[in-house]
Amino acid sequence: MLGGTLFLARTVGTKAQAAKGVRHIGSLSPGSPPNPAFLQRLWAPARELGWIEGQNLIVERRYAEGKAERLKPYAEELVRLNVELILTNGTAATIAAKNATTRIPIVMYSAGDPVRSGLVASLARPGGNITGYSIVARELDAKRLEILQELLPTAQRVAVLIDPTNPYNEIAREERERVYRSLGIQAIIVGARAASELENAVSEAARWRAQALIVPVDTLFWAQRVLLMRIALEHRLPTIVGVRDILEAGGLVSLAIDESEQSRVMASFVDRILRGAKPADLPVQQPSKLLLSINLKTAKTLSITIPHSLLLRADEVIR
After folding, report:
1. Is the distance from CB of 31 to CB of 195 less than 8 angstroms?
2. Pseudo-torsion of CA 119, 279, 101, 286, nearest 10°?
């Protein structure tokens, strides 16, 4: 995976000072407003670079609150407000912003494979008005399956929970199934568009006799993590999740990006673009590492013994 930290290298002993005047940017997310503590962590690297919200930075935030149809009008609204940059969270939000403007720079806080999604020409040379941080799902799929095989070596049927409203899931489906087949595992794709559909989705996985459930990064699954993990545990399904917060809610294992690195990369993109850099000239960054975390409380509930080799590699163990 590409080393995102190289992109953040700065001259030792210098501290960026924000340009004069107040800058005006937008933020577009398919989910709901996060708690203030998360926003503080998210924007801490930007503050270190001299961008202080409420002083020299105004952020117009728009949240679709799980309603994908809101992304288009919200993106168009941000364009009408003539923001200097649009920060997007997820593939669907980035596509909405891309369709709304070819003029305003767009920074992806996260997005699934932006090349296959048609968002950029290439990771090294994005072209156009989009750059940012990306997660290539097929690489994560393979790594999660390797962990699953170490954890449950006899597993042959694995369910993958997706949100059908996320356009990347359809783009990645064929590749995802190919990765699973290459490792001798049958992928059982189950979908949920809203919290009310999670029970049926997990129940369907159980009906297909899935031996584990993969929960990728998705705004819906993060927002409904307590409900989702309760349902999975009721069906005694071990879960490998893409966000540490879901692990805390009852997941078994998480393989997740380092959110502090992701925030630093985002801040660096925002900083450079507001100082005059063009998105077309800024390579898309990918995680330099993935964090492995294990929830031993969930393992005990499911009567699963975690291999010692996996515990030794874990970045965090919840006891």
Report:
1. no
2. 30
